[in-house]
C-alpha cells in the first residue's frame, strides 16, 4: 500500500505556487480516486459501445410497420413512428456522439495548447496578438455562431460538425494554459534552463509542458463534454449530421413523441447524454483535485479505521 | 415547430401565399362563451418569436390575416374548388387587346375602415404603386398602367398577355387606400401599424403575445361577418399548441398533429373537427434529367415501380398524405382538367416489373446486387434539406425498397441555403421537394415543366429544377397563355396534351399529395368549410382564403 507516500503527498508537499518538477507521486494519488474510477468506467463503457456496438446490431434505419411500440423483448427500447428500433438507433448514435466529442476534445486541446502555451512562453507581440485572438473567440456567442456556420456548411458529417464546434471551443482553455505558462516560465528552473542555453522549443516541451499535463488533460475532458453537448444542441435544432443522440431527440421532438407518450424514444438518448456528461465530469473533478491541492480531501488511511 | 410548416413557409415565400408556422405560448384571457353579439374566436397563428407588428399586405412578413381579412382582393379564386370565382371588390372583369388589357368593374358603396369612401381610384393607385415599387410586385405582374376611367371602372394595361395570371392580378393583389399609401415614402419598408382596409375585420389591439381583429360594422357584404372578432395567438412549441387545442382553447388552427384522432379528436369528439387540405403540394422525387442515368425514362419508371407509396405515406408522413396522380395535378381539385383516361391511373408498386424495366433497358445486375450498364452502377444520391425529418424518413424507406430491386439510393442532407442554390443550378442527381402552383392548372405545369423556367446546368433555373424540356409541352403552355380563361374547353385540350407527355415520360417521380391539417372546433362556431361545402380552403394562413372563411363563420347554435 502506498498509504504513507500518498498521505504525505496529499497533506501538502504540493503547495500552490511551488513547482514540483518530479511528477510521479501526484499521479499515484489519482489512481486511488473513486471519482476517477467511476468516471472512467462510465466513459469507458460508452467508448466500448461506440467502437463495437454498431458492428453488433442490425441496420438502425430499418423501417417496419411496428410503429411506436413500447419496449418489449423484441424491441428492447421500443420503436419510432417509422417502426425503427430505438435500441439500434441508440447504439449507432453513441458512435456519432462519442466521435464528435473525441474529435472536438483533441482539436480544441491542440489549438489551445498551441495558442496558450506558445503565447504565454513567447511573450511580447506574439503573446499580445495570440491573446487578442483568443479573447475575441472568448466573447463570441458560441452556440449562435456555430448555428450560423453550420447552416452555411453544405454537407455535414460527424467530422464537419466536430470541426465547427472546435472552432469556438478552444479559447477558454487557451487562456487558462497561457496564465499557467506565464507563471511557470518565470520559475527558477526555467530560468536556469534558459541560462544554460537550452533552446526555446526544448524548454517548452520538456520543462513547461510536463507541468501543464494535468491541466491539459482537464481541459481536454472539458472540451469533450462541451463537444458532446454542443453537438446535441445543434442536432436538436435540426442542424446535426452526425447521427447522434441529439439527432434522435430531434426526430423524437418532430414526431411529437412527447405528446404521444413515447418516452422510450427520447428518454434513452437524453439519459446517455447525461451519463456521459456525468462520467466525464467525474474524471475532470479528480484531475482538478490533482492540479489544485486545496480541493483535495485527505483520505483517512484505511489501517486506522473510523475515527 | 414542425418542419413541414417551416418548409411550406420557405417554399411559399416565392409566391404570395404565406403559410404560417405554429407557435408560442400565450395566456388565454377567456371570452370563450358565445353571446348575442357573437364571439371573439381564438386562432392559432403567428411566429414563435413573438408577434412583430407588420400589416403591410405586400410584405412577406405581415402577420396572418393582413391579406384577405384586413385587405381585400378584387376577386376571390377558391383554392379548394376549380373555377369557383367570387366577386369581392370588383363585380366584373373583361379582357381586351389579346389579354394585354384588363377592364374591371369596381363595387359601389364600399368604405375604408376610417370612413373614407373606396373607389376605382384606389384600385388604379394600387396597381401603379406595385408597378413603381418592384419590391411590392411579388407576382412579377407586367403592369404598364392602371387608369380609373370613372369611379367604378379601372382599366389596367400590361406589356404582355396575362390570361393565365388573372388569379394573381385580381385574386392576390391587395387593394390599399390611396389617401394613406400615397404619402408613404418607402412602401416596401412600411409596417402599417394602423391598418386601414376594406376587409370584414379591423385591428382592435396588438401585443407581442396576441392581436385581435374586430368586426367591421360598415362591411360592404350585408349581414357579414357574424362573429365578433378573431384573436390570433401563438405557442412556444407544437406540443403546447396541441395541448391548447385538446383543451378547447383554440377555435381554429393549422397545426400538424402526429396522431390527430387520439391527441385531438378524442378529447371532444362532438366538437373537435379537422380537415386535411391535401391539394396544395405534391411531394416529388425530382431527378436531374440533364444527367445520366435519369435521361433514361426506363430508369425513372423502374424507380417509381419499386416504391411502395402506401408504406411511405403510412410511416414517414403519418398516414395523412394522399395518393398522387401520375398526371401531376392534385385531385379531386383538378379532376375536371385531367384527361379521363389518365384520371384513375395509379402509380403502381411492382418490384418485379421494376427489374424487368431495367433489364429491357440494357441494365444487368452486378455481383454486388446493384444493376449496372456500360460500367456504370445504378447508384445515385438524393439531396434533402437538413432536418426535414419526414423527407429523411421517407428516403430511408425508399432506400430499402430500391435496394431490394438492385438500385442504390444514398441520401445527402444539406442546409436549406445550399439546397436552394443546388436545385436552381442543377447541382444534384436527385432532390426531394414539394411542387406547388400559383392557383391554376396551367401554373402547375408551367412551373414544373416549362422550358422557359429552366436553365442549363450551372445556371439558375426559375422553377423547373429537373430541367425537363419538351416541345409539345411548351407548345401547349404557349397555347394556354393565349387563351382567355373562360374558354375552358380549349384550355382543357392543351392540358390533356401535356398529361399525355408526362404520364408517358414520367419526368418526375410523384410520391404523394402532401397533407395540411386544419383543426377547428364547432362548440361555438358553425359554417367552417367541409369536404362537401368547400367554399374556401380552410387554412388559417396569410392568404386569400382566410378572410373568406372568417367572414362566413357563424356563432353555433
Distance between the first and last residues' Cα of chain A: 20 Å
Rg of chain B over CA atoms, rounded to whole Å, is 24 Å
In total, the number of strands of chain A is 0
**Main sheet overview of chain B:** 5 strands, mixed
Structural class given helices, strands, pairing of chain A?
A: mainly alpha
Tell me what portion of residues of chain B adopts beta-strand conformation: 15-25%
- Uncertain stretches of 5 or more adjacent residues of chain B: 1-36
- Main β-sheet of chain A: number of strands, strand sense, barrel status? none
Distance between the termini of chain B: 34 Å
Mean pLDDT of chain B: 90
The percent of residues in helical segments of chain B reads 25-40%
Can you count the helices of chain B?
Answer: 17
* SS element count, helices of chain A: 12
So what's the oligomer here?
A: heterodimer
Structural class of chain B: alpha+beta
Tell me how many strands of chain B there are: 23
Arrangement of strands in the largest sheet of chain B:
18-17-19-13-20
Portion of residues within helices of chain A? over 70%
- Range of strand content of chain A: under 5%
Radius of gyration of CA atoms of chain A, rounded to a whole number: 23 Å
Q: Of all protein chain pairs, which has the greatest interface, and how many residues does each chain bring to it?
A: A-B, 29 and 31 residues
Amino acid at each position: 500500500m502506498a498509504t504513507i507516500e500518498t498521505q504525505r503527498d496529499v497533506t501538502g508537499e504540493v503547495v500552490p505556487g511551488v513547482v514540483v518538477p518530479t511528477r510521479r507521486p501526484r499521479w499515484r494519488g489519482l489512481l486511488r480516486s473513486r471519482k476517477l474510477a467511476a468516471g472512467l468506467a462510465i466513459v469507458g463503457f460508452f467508448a466500448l459501445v461506440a467502437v463495437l456496438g454498431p458492428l453488433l446490431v442490425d441496420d438502425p434505419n430499418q423501417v417496419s410497420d411496428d410503429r411506436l411500440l413500447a419496449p418489449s423483448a423484441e424491441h428492447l427500447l421500443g420503436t419510432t413512428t417509422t417502426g425503427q428500433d430505438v435500441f439500434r438507433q441508440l447504439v449507432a448514435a453513441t458512435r456519432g456522439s462519442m466521435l464528435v466529442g473525441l474529435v472536438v476534445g483533441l482539436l480544441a486541446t491542440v489549438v489551445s495548447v498551441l495558442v496558450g502555451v506558445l503565447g504565454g512562453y513567447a511573450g511580447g507581440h506574439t503573446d499580445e496578438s495570440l491573446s487578442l485572438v483568443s479573447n475575441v473567440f472568448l466573447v463570441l456567442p458560441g452556440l449562435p455562431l456555430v448555428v450560423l456556420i453550420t447552416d452555411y456548411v453544405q454537407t455535414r458529417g460527424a467530422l464537419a460538425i466536430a470541426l465547427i464546434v472546435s472552432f469556438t471551443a478552444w479559447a477558454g482553455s487557451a487562456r487558462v494554459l497561457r496564465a499557467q505558462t506565464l507563471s511557470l516560465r518565470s520559475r527558477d528552473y526555467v530560468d536556469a534552463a534558459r541560462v544554460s542555453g537550452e533552446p526555446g522549443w526544448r524548454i517548452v516541451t520538456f520543462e513547461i509542458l510536463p507541468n501543464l499535463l494535468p491541466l491539459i488533460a482537464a481541459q481536454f475532458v472539458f472540451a469533450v463534454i462541451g463537444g458532446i453537448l454542443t453537438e446535441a444542441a445543434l442536432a436538436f435544432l435540426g442542424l446535426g449530421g452526425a447521427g447522434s443522440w441529439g439527432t434522435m431527440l430531434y426526430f423524437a421532438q418532430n414526431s411529437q413523441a412527447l405528446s404521444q407518450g413515447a418516452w422510450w424514444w427520447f428518454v434513452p438518448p437524453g439519459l446517455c447524454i447525461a451519463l456521459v456528461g456525468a462520467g466525464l465530469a467525474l474524471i475532470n473533478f479528480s484531475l482538478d483535485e490533482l492540479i489544485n491541492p486545496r480541493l483535495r480531501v485527505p483520505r483517512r488511511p484505511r489501517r486506522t479505521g473510523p475515527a | 415547430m414542425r418542419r413541414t410548416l417551416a418548409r411550406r413557409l420557405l417554399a411559399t415565400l416565392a409566391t404570395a401565399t404565406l403559410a404560417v408556422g405554429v407557435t408560442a405560448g400565450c395566456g388565454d384571457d377567456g371570452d370563450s362563451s358565445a353571446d348575442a353579439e357573437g364571439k371573439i374566436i381564438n386562432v392559432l397563428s403567428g411566429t414563435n418569436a413573438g408577434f412583430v407588428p407588420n400589416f403591410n399586405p405586400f410584405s412577406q412578413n405581415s402577420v396572418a390575416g393582413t391579406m384577405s381579412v384586413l385587405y381585400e382582393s378584387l376577386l376571390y379564386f377558391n383554392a379548394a374548388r376549380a373555377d369557383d370565382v367570387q366577386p369581392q371588390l370588383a363585380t366584373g372583369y373583361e379582357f381586351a387587346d389579346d389579354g394585354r388589357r384588363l377592364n374591371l368593374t369596381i363595387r359601389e358603396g364600399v368604405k375604408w375602415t376610417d370612413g373614407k369612401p373606396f373607389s376605382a381610384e384606389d384600385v388604379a393607385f394600387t396597381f401603379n404603386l406595385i408597378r413603381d415599387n418592384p419590391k411590392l410586385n411579388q407576382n412579377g405582374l407586367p403592369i404598364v398602367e392602371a387608369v380609373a376611367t370613372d369611379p367604378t371602372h379601372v382599366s389596367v394595361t400590361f406589356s404582355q398577355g396575362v390570361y393565365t395570371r388573372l388569379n394573381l392580378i385580381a385574386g392576390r393583389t391587395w387593394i390599399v387606400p390611396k389617401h394613406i399609401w400615397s404619402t408613404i415614402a418607402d412602401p416596401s419598408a412600411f409596417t402599417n401599424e394602423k391598418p386601414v382596409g376594406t376587409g370584414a375585420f379591423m385591428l382592435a389591439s396588438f401585443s407581442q403575445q396576441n392581436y385581435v381583429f374586430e368586426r367591421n360594422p360598415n362591411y360592404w357584404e350585408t349581414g357579414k361577418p357574424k362573429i365578433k372578432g378573431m384573436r390570433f395567438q401563438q405557442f412556444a412549441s407544437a406540443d403546447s399548441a396541441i395541448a391548447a387545442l385538446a383543451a378547447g382553447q383554440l377555435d381554429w388552427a393549422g397545426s400538424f398533429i402526429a396522431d390527430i384522432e387520439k391527441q385531438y379528436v378524442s378529447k371532444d369528439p362532438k366538437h373537435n373537427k379537422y380537415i386535411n387540405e391535401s391539394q396544395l403540394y405534391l411531394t416529388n422525387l425530382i431527378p436531374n434529367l440533364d444527367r445520366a442515368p435519369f435521361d433514361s425514362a426506363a430508369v425513372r419508371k423502374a424507380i417509381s415501380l419499386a416504391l411502395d407509396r402506401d408504406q411511405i405515406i403510412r410511416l414517414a408522413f403519418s398516414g395523412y398524405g394522399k395518393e398522387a396522380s401520375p398526371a401531376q395535378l392534385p385531385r379531386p381539385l383538378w379532376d375536371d382538367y385531367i384527361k379521363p383516361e389518365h384520371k384513375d391511373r395509379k402509380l403502381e408498386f411492382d418490384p418485379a416489373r421494376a427489374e424487368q424495366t431495367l433489364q429491357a433497358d440494357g441494365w444487368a445486375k452486378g455481383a454486388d446486387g446493384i444493376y449496372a450498364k456500360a460500367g456504370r452502377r445504378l447508384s445515385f444520391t438524393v439531396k434533402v434539406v437538413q432536418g426535414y425529418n419526414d423527407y429523411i424518413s421517407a428516403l430511408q424507406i425508399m432506400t430499402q425498397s430500391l435496394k431490394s430491386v438492385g438500385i442504390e439510393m444514398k441520401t445527402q442532407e444539406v442546409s436549406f441555403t445550399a439546397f436552394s442554390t443546388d436545385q436552381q443550378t442543377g447541382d444534384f442527381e436527385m432532390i426531394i421537394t414539394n411542387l406547388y402552383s400559383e392557383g391554376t392548372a396551367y401554373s402547375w405545369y408551367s412551373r414544373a415543366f416549362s422550358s422557359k423556367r429552366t436553365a442549363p446546368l450551372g445556371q439558375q433555373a426559375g422553377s423547373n429544377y429537373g430541367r425537363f424540356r419538351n416541345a409539345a409541352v411548351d407548345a401547349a403552355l404557349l397555347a394556354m397563355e393565349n387563351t382567355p380563361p373562360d374558354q375552358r374547353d380549349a384550355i382543357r385540350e392543351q392540358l390533356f396534351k401535356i398529361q399525355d407527355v408526362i404520364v408517358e415520360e414520367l419526368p418526375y417521380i410523384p410520391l404523394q399529395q402532401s397533407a395540411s391539417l386544419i383543426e377547428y372546433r364547432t362548440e361555438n362556431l358553425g359554417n367552417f368549410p367541409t369536404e362537401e361545402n368547400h367554399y374556401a380552403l380552410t387554412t388559417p394562413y396569410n392568404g386569400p382564403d382566410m378572410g373568406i372563411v372568417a367572414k362566413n363563420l357563424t356563432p353555433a347554435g
